[in-house]
Amino acid sequence: MIVLEDLMNNSFSITVDLEDWYHIPSVCGSPFAVYRSVDEFFEKWDDKYDFLTEPTKKVLDLLDEFKVTATFFAVADIVENYPGLIESVVERGHELACHGLHHTCKIDPETKKQLISNEEFEQRTLLAKRILEKVGGDKIVGYRAPNSLVGGWMLDSLERIGFKYDSSVSVNSLYNKTDSSLSTVSSTPYFPIENGLEVGGNRNLVEFPWAYYHNLLKIPASGGPILRFFGAPLVLNGLLQSLRRGHTVFYFHPLDISCAKFPSIGNNRPFYWSLKGKLVEQRIRYILKKLEDIDKICLRDYQGL
Ligand SMILES: [Zn+2]
Questions:
Q1: 3-state DSSP: the chain helix, strand, coil percent, rounded to 5?
Q2: Any domain includes 251
Q3: What CATH number does residue 22 fall under?
Q4: Is residue 305 situated within a structural domain?
Q5: Cα–ligand 1 centroid distance for 214 (angstroms)
Q6: Residue 250 C-alpha to ligand 1 middle, in angstroms?
Q7: Distance between CA 96 and CA 140 in Å, rounded?
């Protein structure tokens, strides 16, 4: 049983989203994608697709160097298309969690309306959970919505199919990728209401929101794109502020530190990936060094889960 008081402590979780360049909404699995689905992408794409394996190995070495056990939110189709990659994550002692079957959007990025039914979401997510459990060996209890597009209804479904937590909510003034106002949400773990993302529920599923920096605006202090475009000092200050509030979450992608040139298909892709690679790796390294003495736990080990 989770006790709310126990949720407030000075630790944080480093999380890594395991996905490749084509999982992103302008390429696959969104209303404006070049390919309707990852299946269609693989039917038509005849060039190199794997830009994920190399930077994932770098991330694993980086985490070893800083003695960090992290939570990896993996897209389940990686099991089939990158043999051995997820095994290498699990062998190094990291938690495996679910980032969807094919990383498709479940709510419309513009209108936030449901794109699939609850039943279809549950079927697909349960399949993803089973695929990951088969390769990882342990029960999968954590979920992160692809593209952080999350609706309150999704949490009801996740709880129904055996998840213990979600980590998709990012409170900030720049964007809201959810179907809720997020008016009562902070950067500390909480119980969401039924069919919503606001604080105040009485259920057995916890939301772990991401860190944010609060000055005049609230700016997310977590995530590869923020690290790439805003730099390390803002992210570090946001993490420190969030840690004062309680437990918080930091995340990035292996793709963020890749030095390769990705295929430039899809809207805004060249701009989106204009900053990444060694520079971003140095920024992650700087943050990990500064926060070396803070306890880091993978999300499934959070007290009470
Ligand atoms: Zn993702």
A1: 35, 15, 50
A2: yes
A3: 3.20.20.370
A4: no
A5: 24
A6: 14
A7: 7
